[in-house]
Amino acid sequence: MRIVLTPGGKRRLTARLDAVRAEFDAIVADMPEALESGDTSGWHDNFAFEDNQRRQGLLAQRIRELERVIDQAEVVAPWERVPERVYVGVSVSWRFEDDPPGQKRAVWIAGFEDGDPGAGRVSYDSPLGRALLGAQEGDLRGVRIDGRVREVEVLALGPTPDGEALAPTADGVAA
Questions:
Q1: Which DSSP string corresponds to 122-158?
Q2: pLDDT category, 163, cuts 50, 70, 90?
Q3: pLDDT for 172 beyond 70
Q4: CATH code at 9?
Q5: Do residue 17 and residue 48 come from a single domain?
Q6: 173 occurs within a structural domain
Q7: Is the pLDDT of residue 109 over 50?
Q8: Residue 81 placed within a domain
Q9: Which of the listed residues 21, 48, 75 is the one where a domain comes to its end?
Q10: What local confidence, expressed as pLDDT, does residue 84 receive?
Q11: Same structural domain, 146 and 106
Q12: How many domains are contained in the chain?
């Protein structure tokens, strides 16, 4: 599977990886205390220790997944001009065909697992992102939302939003 990220998306994904690693390290540091909090024979009948082990395993798996995605990702340059089709990084104005006349919505197509509808980002691997990818202005595409198929009309395309390459890191600071 091809994994595509924007420069800002790679920064956000790296920040998520750093946060998961920090959580993993905190659990590792807590293991001696968890071991002492229960049955002194070790792991047996020691809920805190067993829970730490379970969480540690889940976090280790998530770290491996994030590292794999970052290693395999192709980072695409921001779009500075208006493209003819929807690609990762492109801004899209669209509407549902059954929306009231004149209503339009705007998003931009973000990379793998980088969607945040509140920030106007829709990941290309989301249902809406998959429906929009490759579309041209005027195209109608079907998307399954809440168990039913709705038609999406592409109204206009635009470049990548300004500042996307300077996405904030986990501490909220853009670099």
A1: EETTSHHHHHHTT--TT-EEEEEETTEEEEEEEEEEE
A2: confident
A3: no
A4: 1.10.287
A5: yes
A6: no
A7: yes
A8: no
A9: 75
A10: 95
A11: yes
A12: 2
Q: What is the mean pLDDT of residues 12-23?
A: 96
Instruction: Kindly report which listed range (17-31, 46-60, 94-108, 122-136) carries the lowest average pLDDT score.
Output: 46-60
| pLDDT at res. 42 | 52
**CA 50 vs CA 3, 32, 33, 44, 155: distances in Å:** 35, 12, 12, 8, 54
Of the candidates 56, 55, 64, 52, which has an alpha carbon nearest to the alpha carbon of residue 17? 64
Residue 172: which residues within 8 A CB-CB, separation 6 or more? none
List the alpha helices (DSSP H) in the chain. Answer: 7-36, 47-72, 127-132
**Residue 22 contacts residue 64 (beta carbons within 8 Å):** no
Helix, coil or strand: residue 67: helix
Question: Residue 45's domain spans which residues?
Answer: 4-75
